[in-house]
Amino acid sequence: MIATAVHAADPPKDVKLYVFSSGGLTLDKSILQNGSSGKVTIPVGFFLIRHPKGDVLFDCGNNDRIITNPDYWGPLIGGLDPVRTPDVAIDTQLAKINVRPADVKYVVLGHFHADHAGNIGKFMDSTFVYQRDEIKSAFWPAPGFATFYISGDFEPMRSGIAVGMPNKVKVIELEGDLDLFGDHSVYIHRAVSHTPGSQLVVVRLPKTGTVVLTGDAIYLQENLDKNLLPSIGSVYNPPGMLDAYAWVRRVRDLEGADVIFSHDPDTFKAKKHAPEYYD
Description:
By secondary structure, the protein is an alpha/beta fold.
């Protein structure tokens, strides 16, 4: 049986969802979908959920340092050719809705790869929500899976010398699912798939209804529809990724949910982008 989040019949009336992009990456499609080929430019999506109890950021994009210092990404700059124009900076993006990094209460990290956790250092007053397995993997990944973890992105989270607690920032460290506000409007689901501690978010809105934010647990709409996995280097746990597909399809079918993929260029382009929103 596939467990799903408990449905909320009446989510809070003031919940809104904003869609942003931290630019784009250009790579071979085979990375996202095994058996495909050819270069594709994908968005780097991140999202802000406005809730009466505080703003929630899901992922925080590429580190803004690469806009002026491409060397920060080393060989990934040439391999992924990220968009590095000033307008993709996270401060500039959030300013579209008059939000500053200091205003964000929670930062939920789908995982710790460079295009999802890059700007952690700008949210040091926020509470970070992640899976225990993921932060362990970020600091010391399994052989073959270290490529996209950039330790400089998440080093600010770590306490200094001779401190008993490892975290320098406020954290909620998970080993499973979490109903963040206790009202079913922001539900975090653990999906051991793309990485050891990947997670996705279900948002329930008063008018739009249910929206699933997949992170990298599902790359493309076609992957979900046809059970297509990415290349082996992009999936830590292939059966777990297929489980994530099944879990999302179940939520979609039971609740009539929309699914927003962080990296699908076609479906992402068709969504409302900030300052527009879903409510």
